[in-house]
Amino acid sequence: MDIIKVLIVDDSTVIRNIIRDALSHSPYIKVVGEAEDPLVARELIKKLNPDVLTLDVEMPKMDGITFLINLMRLRPMPVIMLSTLTTKGADITLQALEIGAVDFIAKPTVQELLAPQASFKEVLIDKITQAVTIDQKNFKLSDNLASGKVIKESGNILSFTGIKRANHLVAIGASTGGTEAIKKLLVSLPSNAPAIVITQHIPKTFSLRFAQRLNEHCQVEVHEATHGQKIKVGHVYIAPGDKHLEVVYKNGALFCTLSDGDEVNRHKPAVDVLFHSMLDFADNVQAVLLTGMGQDGAKGMLRLKELGSRTIIQDKNSSLIWGMPGKAHAISAHTMQAPLLEVTKHLLDYAGLTRVEMQDVLAKNCVGGVL
Predict the structure, then answer these.
(1) Which domain range does residue 86 map to?
(2) Is 319 marked active-site?
(3) Residues 81-137: tens digit of each pLDDT
(4) Is 141 in the same domain as 18?
(5) Could you say which of 39, 89, 111, 312 has the lowest number of CB atoms within 10 Å?
(6) Which of 258, 235, 236, 238 is nearest to 247 (CA)?
(7) What positions constitute the catalytic site (predicted)?
(8) Catalytic: 201?
(9) Is 346 a residue of the active site?
(10) CATH code: domain of residue 82
């Protein structure tokens, strides 16, 4: 494996030291430089030609978003954002992911640095190691951002005749690259789309803002899931960043439940927890695994498939990281794979009434059965 050259961009000497120390634990990563602001970073990029950048979301002299837009226009490269666990930090980070940042990691607390379990340094090393495997085309600045402003996306809304069976549910799991993949999937959904539950690996503060930002873009109503919330057609429920999301069936309806159990696959929320909660009604479920690092969701998807679920994975070419869908593919947990932009249509085609069924519904609702 070639040595990965990393440039650290952060105005805090303390944070730069923490990152440098964390990365020193990998024999395959070398910190080639440090910059206290984007202007210094710009010169060091030209001089040192790093493979990956770590970038503070809130920087002096030039804000992180402006710097990132300029970087993606002039010198596209993998960028890992260092963010604060605040509403402001969440907004800036989600905007950075829209622009083209590969991933983000929360700035560590003292407790996290001292914790014996999966630590900040291990997660950061994983993210940087994965970042250099991503196809360079994924870092190209989109045309919508060329003006320097993030413009709301709007998909071509697909038509949908209505769900074929009551309580039909779509369950989606995602991680690295998932915030943008989920948005691209949801923006083309009509307001009567099947109910959707989502587990995205994301911190608590971020999950609420993520749901709110999606709701601004979508015809469906997007929520951060709450405990006991009834699941309805035309609504999307996103797991809070500090709780496992599960689905229960009772009294003829589906409900969200939140649990504060241990991490599963190093994650809370975990996709496998969501998928396993639906085994009792698997034959009325479509499960989807989108881009993401790791293996979370693969085993749960396989169990759903064995019990009659339709299971879809995002294909490799359209995935930022083909980790989670790739693991599902390796164990044949999928019934089909598709490019990201085709997943929504497949979901609706499978869930919707056929033309003949729709005619029957219309006939039953017309006086004397006359259309």
Answers:
(1) 4-145
(2) no
(3) 998 888 888 999 999 999 999 999 988 876 655 555 557 889 999 999 999 998 766
(4) yes
(5) 111
(6) 258
(7) 175, 201, 296
(8) yes
(9) no
(10) 3.40.50.2300
